[in-house]
Amino acid sequence: MNQQQDQLEALHEIRNIMDRSSRFISLSGLSGVFAGLSALVGAAVVKWYFSQQNINYYSDQARNFSQEDVLFLLAVALGVLVLAFGTAAYFTARNARKKNQRTWDNQSKRLLANLAIPLATGGVFCAILLYHGILYLVAPAMLVFYGLALLNGSKYTLGDIRYLGIIEIVIGLVACVFVGYGLMLWTLGFGVLHIVYGALVYFKYER
């Protein structure tokens, strides 16, 4: 019985070693939580701006937004992106130090490369939408391409990210149909879901 248990423990250890050698497993759940909080703050700022400009996102999809409106939205999006990536880098580096792992290695490089391709494509696509004045599809497109990026990178990190990616894609497609709820669904996808996902990952792997 002891011999069988030792063999199972040995197999488990081998599997852990293989996971560490092929996956970047130092992603911190706290980075997801703070990314979600950043998105919620960004959504609140956009909602405040819309109220000041008497813009009803639900019914004003056909509205021609001014250059000032677009620049403000881009500034908020950039701010959320910087906060999200900044906190992700900080908490991931801290988690890696706890596990005596390197933050920048072949696994993290492969992860970033697989995330970058769909994200860069999505960024260009959103820029094209803005160029043509199709602002109401930008939020759905961000959700879809972000979900594709998570799905593409999930094989190089925690498998839980795969499910987050699938849900983001579904929410993005729903937002493509119900465009009036685009801002609300963006807040759900980038804000609430990130917080829930981050908390689950934190208590599952880091506690």
TrEMBL record:
- Record key words, sorted: Membrane, Transmembrane, Transmembrane helix
The protein's name: Uncharacterized protein
Show the stretches that span the lipid bilayer.
Answer: 24-50, 70-91, 111-131, 137-154, 161-181, 187-205
* Species: Pontibacter indicus
